[in-house]
Amino acid sequence: MTLARLGGRTFASLRHRDYRLYFVGNAFSFVGTWMQQIAAYWLVLELTRSAVAVGALALVQTLPVTVFGLLGGSIADRVDLRRMIVSCEAVLAVVAAALAVLALGRAIEAWHLYAAAAVQGVALALDAPARHTLVFRIVGRDDLTNAVALSSGLGTSARIVGPALGGLVIAVAGAGVAFALNALSYVIVIGAILAMRIPSTPRLDVHVGTVLAGVRETFAFAFSARRVTVTFLAVMLVSTFSFNFDVLLPLVARRTLDEGAEVFGLIAAVFGAGALCGALILAAVGRARLLVVLGGAAGFGGFQLVLSQQTTLTATCALLFVIGIFYVLWGSSALATLQLAAPEELRARAASLYFFAFQGGAPLGGLLAGALTARGGTELAFVSAGTIALVVAVGLAVALASDPARARPGRAASL
């Protein structure tokens, strides 16, 4: 009976028909996205033989989030969510198809990958807050933390399947096939979104003034209460300086372990397996707590310090699994925390605040990770990342402990 109740809590959000459609559609899309990520980073490394070039690709893809991330949430609060999501997914499908044609025709160059990454970055900056606001509309407040955890579990399962398939596809058929499969995955998720029964959201006036005013309101929310501010800063600082695995994992495979694409796919998949375990833990708990955010950040940093000293595949895989668990505990808990703390009219902007914090500093972080690796190997990059994550977690915990409002009953209970 206890196991049955635990299973019911873990998968509670799947009782919503539209969330099941969202879940299945994104299962294909996330796998395709990771296959494309693996193919793009590996192809840049092969074309340029440069660690800095890999970091530059991360910069180009994430820079639009820095520029447009908060605008995406402000727009999503004013337009029909499904129409916005379908438009963004269609753009992503076209980009993936174009890369497939270039790669299969043996005409692809590094600048093609950079241009595609920039377009993808803009589309994702607009798409992400709309998608997570749609999830809130589907499942409601009571099931939000569970839905966020399950969605995170889905994304991290894709980290297992996507990199493994991506590495295999690259080795057997080439990067072009990986790009083509990703284009197909977007067609599936668009069909799932269109099949949902939720009513269209009313469209409000959208012009430069209202959008910019919405961005100002987003920043006001970020600093409206200490717990919200702590959550925002935890995500921004840890993700900027300590979560640059897209850049570091191919370098770990190539330079630290002296292996090829298959091992790159394996270690990325192992990290995803740990993240899936963390997502299932969070889904079973079903509540967003700030203690989990800070504790997860501390564990995420501490185990990177241990990882920095490893040169064997077995030890690297074991530590990446544990790091994956802590990654979800701080990342997914933070998203649910911000959305639950936001009033209804700021729901999409709360999601955009999270994605701005999570990816807004990635351009700097990606370049820093590539530069540190070029100077001192992945050991130096992981030592830097782990130390910063630990300092941030401890510092923010001290700041939270000194908050005079933290003991007030009923104050942001979901935090």
If you had to describe this structure to a student in words, what would you say it looks like?
- The structure is a single chain.
- By secondary structure, this protein is mainly alpha-helical.
- It has helices spanning 2-10, 17-48, 51-76, 81-104, 110-139, 144-172, 175-194, 208-222, 226-242, 245-256, 261-285, 290-307, 313-341, 347-359, 362-401.
Quick synopsis:
This protein has 415 residues and is mostly helical. The chain is 82% helix and 0% strand.
Global morphology: globular
Distance between the termini: 29 Å
The value of Rg in angstroms is 20 Å
Give the helix tally: 15
Helix percent reads: over 70%
Strand content: under 5%
Number of strands: 0
The largest pleated sheet is described as: none
Could you spell the SSE succession in H and E letters? HHHHHHHHHHHHHHH
The residue-averaged pLDDT reads: 83
Helix-and-strand structural type:
mainly alpha
Q: Spans of 5+ residues with little confidence (pLDDT < 50)?
A: 407-415
Keywords:
globular, single chain, 415 residues, 15 helices, mainly alpha
Secondary-structure map with pairings?
Elements (H helix, E strand, L loop, with lengths): L1 H9 L6 H32 L2 H26 L4 H24 L5 H30 L4 H29 L2 H20 L13 H15 L3 H17 L2 H12 L4 H25 L4 H18 L5 H29 L5 H13 L2 H40 L14
Helix pairs in contact: 1-11, 2-3, 2-5, 2-6, 2-7, 3-5, 3-8, 3-14, 3-15, 4-5, 4-7, 5-14, 6-7, 6-11, 6-13, 9-12, 9-13, 9-14, 9-15, 10-11, 10-15, 11-13, 12-13, 12-15, 13-14
